[in-house]
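Action item from last meeting closed. Structure (331 res):
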């Protein structure tokens, strides 16, 4: 069972999504500029609102990305939605037309690096940031609950709050770390499908010279940026992440969507890293944990137990099965 400080009374704010394609996004940006820019003073950051960072790369996902960005922008707790477009080959007119919804700004990154999703973008004016995938959307209740859970621990540096847990363990036979699904009641990482964190972690991840070699591993493998962020957060906090459960989360990229999901879902799933890799994907991520441990000279990941919720469900993702949206792990 979760400890007493994991029980929160949260006001879950309903909202109606009304996506209109009528805003002109701004293009520009770069990793060096983001780190060189002066960061806002803590007192200038709004503690009561949330900035959503959405990273995009696949042009096939652009229609879905526009809809998801608009849904986030319509949430009353979201101050801004920043889309970081990480595909340098995409023409500007492909991004600008049709336009992104109001409240959404679009910024091209200098490269296709997965590290770009953690850039401390100068548009951020909130103490908390939600880093999210372009094929996952929590409903209003889930967003509100995750943000409230982060606010309860805002004084603790390095807090990560998410819906999708993973774990690690030492493979003694092979002499290396392994990446794994969470054990019952125990996990050590949360995925960036949707992740709430403090803005200071973005700067530490992106700008710390100590992490340069680890960021290079992310670039080389085109993978594991979420694992490295869990390393960074645990190193700052000395604690594991916080798993929450509320509302529901639609996950277009989960491979457990069935064959009846339709061509649109199949297209979303086909470009996802985890769906393409199979067992090799999990092996590669275990190798990343081992390499990050070696590069940092320490193993900061810590286990967390329980979650901030009363009900017990393995994961929050919703998949399309037989024409219905159900829990992805539901047969």
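Sequence:
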């Amino acid at each position: 069972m979760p400890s007493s400080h994991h029980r929160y009374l949260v006001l879950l704010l309903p909202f109606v999504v009304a996506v209109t394609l009528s805003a002109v996004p701004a293009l520009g940006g770069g990793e060096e500029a983001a780190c060189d820019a002066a960061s806002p003073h803590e007192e200038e950051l709004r503690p009561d609102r949330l900035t959503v960072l959405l990273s995009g790369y696949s042009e096939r996902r652009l229609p879905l990305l526009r809809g998801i960005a608009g849904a986030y922008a319509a949430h009353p707790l979201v101050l801004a939605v920043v889309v970081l477009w990480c595909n340098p080959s995409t023409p500007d007119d492909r991004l600008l037309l049709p336009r992104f919804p109001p409240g959404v700004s679009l910024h091209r990154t200098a490269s296709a690096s997965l590290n770009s999703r953690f850039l401390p973008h100068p548009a951020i004016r909130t103490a908390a940031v939600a880093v999210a995938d372009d094929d996952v959307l929590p409903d209003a209740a889930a967003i509100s609950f995750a943000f409230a859970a982060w606010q309860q621990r805002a004084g603790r540096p390095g807090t990560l709050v998410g819906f999708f847990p993973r774990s690690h363990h030492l493979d003694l036979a092979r002499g290396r770390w392994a990446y794994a699904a969470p054990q019952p009641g125990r996990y050590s990482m949360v995925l960036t499908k949707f992740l709430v964190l403090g803005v200071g972690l973005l700067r530490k991840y992106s700008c710390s010279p100590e992490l340069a070699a680890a960021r290079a591993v992310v670039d080389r493998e085109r993978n594991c940026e979420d694992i490295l962020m869990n390393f960074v957060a645990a190193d700052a906090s000395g604690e594991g992440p916080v798993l929450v459960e509320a509302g529901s989360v639609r996950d277009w990229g989960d491979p457990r969507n069935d064959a009846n999901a339709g061509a649109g879902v199949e297209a979303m799933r086909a470009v996802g890293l985890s769906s393409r890799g199979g067992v090799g994907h999990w092996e590669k991520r275990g190798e990343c944990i081992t390499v990050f441990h070696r590069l940092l000279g320490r193993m900061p990941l810590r286990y967390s137990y329980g979650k901030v919720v009363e009900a017990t469900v393995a994961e929050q993702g919703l998949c399309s099965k037989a024409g219905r949206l159900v829990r992805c792990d539901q047969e």
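Note appended to the action item: The first helix runs from residue 31 to 36.
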